[in-house]
Design the sequence.
């Protein structure tokens, strides 16, 4: 038996689905979190031992899809014949929700209405006459609060859905036989349905506070979504998040953790004292040291995700989307591009996948191309390492990294707009702002733990294997003999990375160790930290006492031999060059065009190189009064990139103008 | 070969075996990015837009 969970966006479908199945699919206090269908068996306490599959569908406002994810929902309930539908209705917004309900009731499949978020209604003094609503709709209506652990109404909903499975559903409203291609007829029919729904709502709902009255929430929204104040507040909020996670709380916990890791490494090295030095190096330095260096940053990542989860849950991040929307439209992206970019602070892959909700192909591809400029969770250790080693753990490094990412998205979008030609259609971004609420510490905790689990799995698998390979490549030369001390440049790793290092001279970090770390970063960005730990023989990247004592001139900085300027250039190079291979794979899938994919990779490489070049050359000029080494070759490399972009642009625009001319002529002939 | 060396080799081999086995299993399941919190979603939505990756 299959029960479909359908309803408007942000009505709480996935929260209910997770509670019923025990899954932990991503939830969020905004519309559009679920972009695909999820299914899982119901917990036996709900299914009563029967084999019942719950199908969580993306949010939809109506059966006529406006976005691809709405299409998934309407297609499923129409064509896959579920045995019953649980329609999750946002009890705080009945009139909007029942439009879709009346359409579901027309399908003939038994429907159970779950009147979700009923607790908020009680707080606001809104009452709904359940018996009358049941009578009007002709289906069971049950109050639910899916966020509650007990007395949440979920068992009653499932019990009802199972008992009704296979029966015939009668519709309280039937759509007239109209031509669905005729916009005027469809509009008129929709208005009729709305007036039918409003009639029901008028009869069953009593509101203490009318929706036309200005609430405190509306007043707060006026400030938070103000085009100027909203951005300043957003910058301030993010500054606090980065400062707490990267400078204060996160660093203190990390310092404690790193101490334990270091002790463990010493213990392993001690136990292997009588073993061959190669084995000791591989196990203690490569495996424990390399993986430990990455794991050491876990507290920073966890604190940051905990704080972001709180911001999401209270409804603030949805306001950020509203603030960013006009700017994104101005640079030629969709307002919807904001959501993938916010998701991208966690992981680039779901962010790129999230771009599929954008209807316009060019905007969708441009979003998938640019979204990884926002540093993802895997890049946090890299930022934290350089902030700690070269800038005394300053929170501004993270802040600047994220805002440079946003700036590059804007500039990249303008470039894509210029290269691909004019933008003919205006895109619309309709987003319902969720109600403000006190964020749940428990939900934020579990969201953080999920990230932590993922981080540890990655460290114990990909990072571990990579570090081991790096350690072996550094230990042996091409004759498979152990590299003697002082001849490290003859190792396999050094000989492979050295040619790449030459290309990095204009950027200020033309040494094979840093080139090797940047290369392994394409497998997973945390590898930059792991590889640096292995090639420089360092583990303790975080040392609060050392930072306090020396203000950044610590052992890590000394070992790498970088200045603050070249360290910043290296950090930006790693942040803004192409993401890991898995994210590139996601881009390939979403773009569905080799031309766009290679353009994206080229743009990201060019951006990372140019940003690092500018930081190094301008920074050296400001700090030391002269340009850095390799200025001319670097300038030539950037000039070549510019020429390539201009040539591609001309080629695309030539075809574009030709097509436009054909369209114009066809229009004239008609 | 002394005992610490033997234990070290066994531990290293075991760590590698389990790490690689996990990665291979995940790849077979269709996960593109091991450890990514969205890996499951990606695997499930393969058909949504003509193949995930």
Sequence:
């Amino acid at each position: 038996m299959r029960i479909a969970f359908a309803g408007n966006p942000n009505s709480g479908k996935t929260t209910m689905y997770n509670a019923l199945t025990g899954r932990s699919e991503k939830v969020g206090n905004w519309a559009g979190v679920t972009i695909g269908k999820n299914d899982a068996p119901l917990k036996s306490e709900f299914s009563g031992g029967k084999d019942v599959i719950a199908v969580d569908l993306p949010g939809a406002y109506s059966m006529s899809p406006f976005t691809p994810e709405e299409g998934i929902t309407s297609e499923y309930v129409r064509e896959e014949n579920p045995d019953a539908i649980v329609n999750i209705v946002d009890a705080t917004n009945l009139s909007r929700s029942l439009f879709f309900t009346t359409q579901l009731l027309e399908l003939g499949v038994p429907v159970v209405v779950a009147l979700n978020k009923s607790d908020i209604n009680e707080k606001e003094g809104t009452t709904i006459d359940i018996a009358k609503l049941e009578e009007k709709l002709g289906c069971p209506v049950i109050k639910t609060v899916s966020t509650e652990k007990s007395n949440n109404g979920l068992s009653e909903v499932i019990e009802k859905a199972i008992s009704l499975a296979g029966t015939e559903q009668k519709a309280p409203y039937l759509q007239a036989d109209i031509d669905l291609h005729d916009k005027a007829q469809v509009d008129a029919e929709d208005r009729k349905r709305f007036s039918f729904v409003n009639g029901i709502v008028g009869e069953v709902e009593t509101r203490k506070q009318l929706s036309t009255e200005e609430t405190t929430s509306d007043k707060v929204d006026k400030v938070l979504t103000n085009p100027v104040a909203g951005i300043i507040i957003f910058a301030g909020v993010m500054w606090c998040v980065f400062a707490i996670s990267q400078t204060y709380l996160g660093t203190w916990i990390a310092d404690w953790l790193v101490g334990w890791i270091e002790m463990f490494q010493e213990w392993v090295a001690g136990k292997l004292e009588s073993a061959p030095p190669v084995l000791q190096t591989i196990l203690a330095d490569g495996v424990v040291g390399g993986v430990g260096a990455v794991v050491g940053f876990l507290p920073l990542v966890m604190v940051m995700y905990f704080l972001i989860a709180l911001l999401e849950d209270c409804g603030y991040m949805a306001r950020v989307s509203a603030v960013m929307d006009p700017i994104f439209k101005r640079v030629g992206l969709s307002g919807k591009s904001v959501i993938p970019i916010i998701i991208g602070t966690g992981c680039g892959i779901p962010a790129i996948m999230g771009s599929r909700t954008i209807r316009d192909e060019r905007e969708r591809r441009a979003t998938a191309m640019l979204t990884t400029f926002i540093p993802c969770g895997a890049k946090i250790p890299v930022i934290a390492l350089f902030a700690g080693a070269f800038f005394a753990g300053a929170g501004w490094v993270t802040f600047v990294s994220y805002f440079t990412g946003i700036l590059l998205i804007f500039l990249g979008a303008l470039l894509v707009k210029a290269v691909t030609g004019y933008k003919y259609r205006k895109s619309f971004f309709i987003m319902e702002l969720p109600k403000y609420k006190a964020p749940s510490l428990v939900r934020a905790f579990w969201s953080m733990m999920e990230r932590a689990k993922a981080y540890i799995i990655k460290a114990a698998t990909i990072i571990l294997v990579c570090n081991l390979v790096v350690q072996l490549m550094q230990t042996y030369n091409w004759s498979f003999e152990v590299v003697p001390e002082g001849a490290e440049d003859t190792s396999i790793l050094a000989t492979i990375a050295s040619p790449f290092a030459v290309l990095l001279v204009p950027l200020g970090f033309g040494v094979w160790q840093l080139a090797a770390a940047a290369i392994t970063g394409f497998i997973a960005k945390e590898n930059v930290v792991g590889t640096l730990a292995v090639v420089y023989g360092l583990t303790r990247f975080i040392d609060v006492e050392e930072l306090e004592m020396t203000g950044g001139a610590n052992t890590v900085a000394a070992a790498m031999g970088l200045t603050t300027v070249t360290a910043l250039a290296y950090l930006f190079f790693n942040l803004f060059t192409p993401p890991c291979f898995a994210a590139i794979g996601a881009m390939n899938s979403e773009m569905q065009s080799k031309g766009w994919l290679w353009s994206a990779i080229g743009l990201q490489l060019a951006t990372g190189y140019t940003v690092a070049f500018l930081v190094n050359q301008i920074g050296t000029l400001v700090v030391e009064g002269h340009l850095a080494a390799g200025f001319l070759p670097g300038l030539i490399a950037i000039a070549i990139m510019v020429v390539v972009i201009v040539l591609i642009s001309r080629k695309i625009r030539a075809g574009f103008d030709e097509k436009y001319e054909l369209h114009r002529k066809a229009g004239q002939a008609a | 070969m002394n005992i610490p060396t033997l234990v070290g080799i066994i531990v290293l081999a075991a760590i590698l075996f389990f790490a690689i086995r996990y990665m291979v299993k995940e790849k077979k399941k269709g996960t593109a990015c091991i450890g990514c919190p969205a890996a499951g979603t990606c695997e499930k939505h393969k058909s949504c837009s003509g193949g995930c990756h």
Remarks:
- The two ends of chain A are 54 Å apart (CA to CA).
- Confidence is low (pLDDT under 50) at residues 547-552 of chain A.
- The first strand of chain A starts at residue 2 and ends at 7.
- Residues 2-206 of chain A form a domain with the Rossmann fold fold (CATH 3.40.50.300).
